[in-house]
Design goal:
The protein is an alpha+beta fold and about 500 residues long. Helix content is about 15%, strand content about 30%. The protein has two domains: about 15-70 and about 425-470, no CATH class; about 90-415, Kelch-type beta propeller (Neuraminidase), CATH 2.120.10. It has helices spanning about 25-55, 440-470, 470-480; strands at about 15, 20, 60, 70, 90-95, 110, 115-120, 130-135, 145-150, 160-165, 165-170, 185-190, 195-200, 220-225, 225-230, 235, 235-240, 240-245, 260, 275-280, 280-285, 295-305, 305, 320, 335-340, 340-345, 360, 370-375, 390, 395-400, 400-405, 405, 410-415, 425, 430-435. The two termini are about 25 Å apart. About 35% of the residues are buried.
């Protein structure tokens, strides 16, 4: 079939700055792609944004890769915005009404449900305390005044603490005469509340966890299959020993007796250190060698709940001394806790024995190495040494310890989950505040709002389709509505294909 010639004087129209034939497949494909994406945007993306703008605190619009403008909630105080990962909202000192009945240091903080206990410790006169203080907490970081809880059978201070399946264990520590002990006390819980302590001596169904040697100032941590104890002070001085008490079989009720892991002794003796399990890695951080505080970080890798094996020798892979992950400055007797895979060190003493107020934190990478972070805003307002720590929800507590003028009865609390920016303006997107309507009501309102916007956008698409299919009438309507300000082409100006 012969191709029809253009009318005399007519010129074939071009599109996209003359690059495409206005009647060709290329320009048709560009238009089809544009309207396909526009349909998805109007009927999919916008209703989705409207839903989350109803139920969420913030909503992301566009692709906000770079945000030079950020606004954060006042609850973050003077932290940078956006807040660095792991930063602590500036610590707050507790009011006098929530002070401890008596100052104490070297105690153990035990948390069970909404109950928080401060067990043992040393009094300002140097005596070792058997008593337990108790309070109840809320997830927003508040607690009631302290009152007496179930006391230990004997005084203990500088003990290690581990919690296994929610049951607390008080391991070793100094007795009333200041000597290391071999005892391990297990908490008796009823409906999540601590009602007493019992000696873990194998009697009445309890595990036999008498330590093989008297220890105080050790670091304990809970693995998936039991409890590990690292270092500490013995009658012979600071130890590099490692002991563990694990479940002998899968489904066992109690862990077995302590096993000394002689082939996995620490690379150097350590006491008053921090121990933590994060993923498949165990860490022993800082502490003292008996003379001064250390910057050291030792890491032990695990595979399937057992220490990793060296494939070449068939023996344990052993500890890694992470020189590149050392603490920025020596620390011992710090308050420490782990939250969401982040290790925190608060206060403590430096190599000269001076009390510190710094807050340091590190997030292990996939290889198990640590990168330490620090912010002036996240420091304590005054030094603390030998304090106790507890984590309730997103609130960390630093309880008691020694300050510049001796032992203290006060508590610091800090929020470890600062709020994200409620407004961010970037090059290709933004973060905007949402209505934050929670619960079932918010969900139903979100559905209604999304459906309403979707219907409006669908009607808009139908109107656009009608307008394009009746181009001449649409242009004449615009001329009429604008009262002649917009001039539609005359009848004889319309040509086929336009």
């Amino acid at each position: 079939m012969a191709q029809q010639a253009l009318p005399p004087g007519a010129v074939r129209r071009r599109a996209v700055f003359g690059m495409l034939d206005a009647e060709g497949w290329g320009w048709a494909g560009v238009k089809a792609t544009f309207w396909f994406l526009t349909t998805i945007f109007l009927l999919g993306y916008i209703p989705n944004v409207v839903y989350y703008a109803t139920v969420s605190d913030t909503v992301e619009v566009g692709a906000n890769f770079i945000s030079p403008i950020n606004w954060c909630p006042a609850a973050n105080k003077d932290l940078p915005c956006p807040v660095p990962v792991g930063a602590v909202v500036p610590w707050e000192a507790s009011p006098e009404e929530l002070a401890l009945p008596e100052a104490r240091a070297g105690a153990v903080a035990v948390q069970s449900g909404t109950h928080l206990y401060l067990v043992g410790g040393t009094a300002p006169d140097g005596s070792v305390i058997p008593s337990t203080l108790e309070t109840t907490t809320t997830l927003d970081g508040n607690f009631v005044a302290w009152f007496d809880g179930p006391a230990l059978p004997e005084p203990r201070t500088e003990a290690a603490h581990a919690s296994l399946a929610g049951v607390p264990f008080i391991i070793g520590g100094l007795d009333a005469s200041g000597n290391p002990t071999t005892t391990v006390y297990v908490g008796i819980l009823e409906n999540g509340a601590l009602t007493g302590w019992a000696l873990a001596d194998g009697q009445e169904g309890r595990p036999d966890l008498t330590l093989p040697t008297p220890i105080a100032g050790a670091a304990a941590a809970t693995a998936t299959n039991g409890i590990y104890v690292f270092g500490g002070r013995t009658a012979d001085g600071v130890s590099n020993g490692v002991w563990r008490a694990i479940y002998p079989t899968e489904g066992a009720v109690n862990v077995a007796a302590w096993e000394e892991m002689t082939d996995l002794a620490l690379p150097a003796p350590r006491a008053d250190a921090v121990a933590a399990f994060v993923g498949e890695h165990a860490y022993v951080i800082g502490g003292t060698d008996g003379e001064r505080a250390s910057r050291s970080v030792f890491r032990l890798d695990f595979t399937a709940a057992e220490p990793a094996v060296n494939e070449a020798t068939g023996g344990p892979e052993g500890w890694h001394a992470l020189d590149g992950s050392a603490i920025p400055a020596p620390r011992a007797s710090v308050a420490s806790f782990v939250a969401s895979g982040t290790i925190y060190l608060v206060g403590g003493v430096d190599a000269a024995g001076d009390a510190q107020f710094t807050t340091l934190w590190a997030i292990p990478n996939t290889a198990g190495d640590l990168a330490w972070h620090y912010l002036d805003q996240s420091n304590l307002t005054e030094p603390r040494v030998d304090s106790s720590t507890a984590l309730v929800g997103a609130t960390a507590f630093v309880i008691g310890g020694e300050g510049p003028d001796g032992m203290v009865d006060s508590t610091f609390r800090g929020n470890i989950s600062p709020e994200p920016p409620f407004y961010r303006l970037g090059i290709l997107g933004a973060t905007l505040p949402g209505l934050s309507i929670k619960g079932e009501i918010g969900q139903q309102l979100g559905y209604i709002n999304a459906m309403t916007v979707g219907i409006i956008n669908f009607a808009l698409l139908v109107a656009i389709g009608v307008a394009f299919s009746h181009k001449r009438q649409t242009l004449q309507l615009f001329e009429k509505v604008s009262r002649g300000r917009f001039k539609a082409p005359r009848e004889d100006e319309f040509t086929p294909g336009t």
